[in-house]
């Protein structure tokens, strides 16, 4: 029979052994960045607030859940990150949303998603177009049909949707869509399209 002190010492020894330099797998880090620590703290707060109640029973496969959480992180690095990113690549987005690559391609062709072609010919997907659950922006197809009817400038469309503007109360068109203000966004898209046509 072990005492509480023995159990604590065993746990400390296991942690020390796991964290020992010679014991880590290649490429495995010993510390987290400040942002990673903040992410874990935010996740902890949400669990303690009861937002995961009923979702995590004692038999839950926490490794699988962790893999799904990591898959939901947009990990593609691009020079446009500051303005439009971060971005998902096709495999990561398909895994997170639980759909096929073909389904993403079809949604992009229908303009229900914004897929942007990068230098190697692959598509990246700006993360701003997805809510916390992975739901895409509502009414995106209608907005894109107004601001870029000929599909000439998808990058410009993404920038317009993700730029903070006074007409949306100091937020973005994307956030206004998510807030249910589609008529306001559609009217702004019409005005933008007319202004761009006049400048052409």
Write up this protein.
The structure is a single chain. The protein is mainly α and 200 residues long. It contains nine helices and three strands. The protein has helices spanning 4-19, 34-48, 62-71, 90-97, 101-109, 140-147, 154-161, 173-178, 182-199; strands at residues 87-89, 116-117, 123-126. Strands 1-3-2 form a three-stranded antiparallel beta sheet. A hairpin with a 5-residue loop joins strand 2 and strand 3 (123-126). Helix 6 packs parallel to helix 9 (182-199). Residues 1-22 have low confidence and may be disordered.
What do the pLDDT scores average to? Answer: 80
Q: Pairing-aware structural class of the strands and helices?
A: mainly alpha
* Model regions low in confidence, pLDDT < 50 over at least 5 residues: 1-22
Query: Largest beta sheet, briefly?
Result: 3 strands, antiparallel
Estimate the strand proportion.
under 5%
> Which percent bin holds the helix content?
40-55%
Number of strands: 3
Radius of gyration: 22 Å
Helix count, per DSSP?
A: 9
Record the strand order, biggest sheet.
1-3-2
What's the order of the H and E elements?
HHHEHHEEHHHH
| Silhouette | globular
Distance between the termini: 82 Å
């Amino acid at each position: 029979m072990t005492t509480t002190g023995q159990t604590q010492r065993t746990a400390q020894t296991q942690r020390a052994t796991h964290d020992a330099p010679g014991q880590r797998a290649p490429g495995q880090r010993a510390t987290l960045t400040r942002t990673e620590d903040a992410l874990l703290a935010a996740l902890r707060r949400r669990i303690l607030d009861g937002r995961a109640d009923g979702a995590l029973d004692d038999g839950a496969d926490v490794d699988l859940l962790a893999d799904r959480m990591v898959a939901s992180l947009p990990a593609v690095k691009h020079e446009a990150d500051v303005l439009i990113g971060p971005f998902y690549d096709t495999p990561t987005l398909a895994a997170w949303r639980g759909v096929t690559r073909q389904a993403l391609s079809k949604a992009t062709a229908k303009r229900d998603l914004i897929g942007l072609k990068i230098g190697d010919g692959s598509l990246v997907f700006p993360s701003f177009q997805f809510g916390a659950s992975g739901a895409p922006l509502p009414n995106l197809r209608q907005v894109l049909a107004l601001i870029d009817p000929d599909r000439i400038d998808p990058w410009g469309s993404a920038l317009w949707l993700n730029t903070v503007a006074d007409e949306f109360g100091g937020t973005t068109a994307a956030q206004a869509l998510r807030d249910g203000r589609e008529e306001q966004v559609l009217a702004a898209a019409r005005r933008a399209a007319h202004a761009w046509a006049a400048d052409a």
